[in-house]
Amino acid sequence: MSATIDTWTGGLGLLAGFCAIAAWLLLAGTPANAPSPSASIRLGTLATGELGITPLGKPVLASTDLRAGRDGAAGSVRVRNHTPVPLAVAVRTSAIRDELDRSAWIQVADGERSVLRTTLGDARSWSPTTLRLAPGEERRLDARIWIPENAPDGWQAARGETTLEFRGKPVKTR
User: How far apart are CA 90 and CA 130, in angstroms?
Assistant: First the structure.
């Protein structure tokens, strides 16, 4: 009699285990239905004395859904020359969180002309290309951050917080 009870108990335990696994798969989803990994980014700005920067205190761009091979996140910033002389304006970034330095790219463009286009990690140096602003002139710069299709691993679930910095140097006129 004991062998029969043990057989029934073992069978019921096995059935309960299969039911628990099936319920977990239904609730959690299968790997094919799981969302693809993404990263998050936020790009802010810093003020300078000779340049007016807008927006200040608000992100230029922000995304929690950066994925390799997609368009990425985009935004714009306005830069105004507050001095009485023409300025050559260079751009760079400084990272608060640098998890995306090797994987993500940034582009800052004046219309069709790129002022900065490189990885976030390499964008810490001043851009060799500058934006020329006459006294009182204001320009809109478009910023975009993306992760290329062939980005090195490590971007999944990474967070990046980066700040755009601007430096204006007087342009020598003859």
Answer: 5
CA 20 to chain centre: 40
| Residue 74 three-state SS | strand
Other C-beta atoms lying within 10 Å of the C-beta of residue 140: 12
Residues 6+ apart with CB under 8 A from 8: none
Tallying the residues shown for the chain, one arrives at: 174
Selecting from 2.120.10, 3.90.320, 2.60.370, 2.60.40, what CATH number does the domain 39-170 have? 2.60.370
Task: Tell me the CA end-to-end span of the chain in Å, nearest whole number.
Answer: 109
Q: What is the pLDDT of residues 8-54, one digit of tens each?
A: 666 666 666 665 566 655 555 545 555 567 889 999 998 788 999 99
Host H or E run for residue 11 = helix 2-28
β-strands 39-45, 159-170 pairing: parallel
In angstroms, how far is CA 115 from the centroid of its own chain? Answer: 18
Which value, in Å, is the radius of gyration of the alpha carbons in the chain? 26
